[in-house]
């Protein structure tokens, strides 16, 4: 079999295992996707335990919406979750389907936005698109504890069976009880 014929056979097998979205990008569903972490900021107040905040930003081609609108990966139907794991704390935030909307028209698979509609939700906003994730939380209900250095902090964002994993650590800025800031984290070798 010639080289070009083998390449076409491999491409055909790849296309049959995945699908094209409307913008000619090949997307895969399910599985673990280690991703580059742009920024993680965890803040707390030493004097007021109700004043906590968290910002997570990831920009990487492996971050995506999975099979998109109407699929098992659609958070408007099934919700999503954000999990933080570190030596100092482990916490999971469920993001129910009632807070999610599509970006653009349904079926366009441009991404999703989560907005908290209750005062009791520690996560205020999430934006996930192909190549981008942003999570913002502000509440005393955030469960991170930064009295000791939490380095490293793993973040797992789950849409159905698809898990985008970021690991923040290395040369992070840490101020006990007040601030943890990590930037430009390379993608981990594997998801935790």
Mean pLDDT: 85
- Rg computed from alpha carbons, rounded to a whole number of angstroms: 18 Å
By helix and strand content, what is the structural category? mainly beta
The helix/strand series, from N terminus to C terminus, equals: HEEEEEHEEEEEEEEEE
Q: How far apart are the first and last residues' alpha carbons, in Å?
A: 41 Å
Biggest sheet details: 8 strands, antiparallel
Low-confidence stretches: 1-27
Strand order of the main beta sheet, please?
8-9-10-11-5-4-15-14
Gross morphology: globular
Overall number of strands? 15
How would you explain this protein's 3D organization?
This protein is mainly beta. The protein has one domain (20-185). Helices cover 10% and strands 42% of the residues. The chain contains two helices and 15 strands. The strands form three sheets. The chain has an eight-stranded antiparallel beta sheet with strand order 8-9-10-11-5-4-15-14. A five-stranded mixed beta sheet has the order 3-13-12-6-7, with no helix packed on it. Strand 12 and strand 13 (162-168) form a beta hairpin. It is globular and about 45 Å long.
């Amino acid at each position: 079999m010639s080289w070009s014929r083998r390449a076409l056979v491999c491409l055909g097998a790849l296309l049959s295992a995945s699908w094209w979205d409307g913008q000619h990008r090949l997307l895969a569903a399910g599985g673990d996707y280690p991703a580059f972490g742009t920024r993680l900021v965890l803040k707390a107040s030493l004097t007021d335990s109700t004043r906590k905040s968290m910002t997570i930003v990831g920009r990487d081609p492996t971050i995506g919406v999975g099979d998109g609108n109407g699929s098992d990966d659609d958070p408007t139907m099934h919700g999503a979750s954000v999990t933080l794991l570190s030596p100092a704390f482990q916490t999971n935030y469920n993001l129910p389907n009632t807070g999610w909307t599509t970006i653009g028209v349904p079926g366009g698979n441009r991404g999703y936005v989560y907005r908290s509609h209750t005062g009791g939700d520690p996560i205020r906003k999430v934006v996930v698109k192909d190549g981008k994730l942003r999570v913002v939380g502000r509440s005393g209900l955030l469960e991170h504890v930064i009295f000791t250095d939490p380095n490293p902090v793993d973040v797992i964002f789950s849409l159905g069976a698809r898990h985008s994993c970021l690991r923040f650590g290395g040369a992070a800025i840490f101020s006990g009880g007040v601030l943890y800031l990590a930037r430009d984290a390379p993608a981990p070798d594997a998801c935790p």
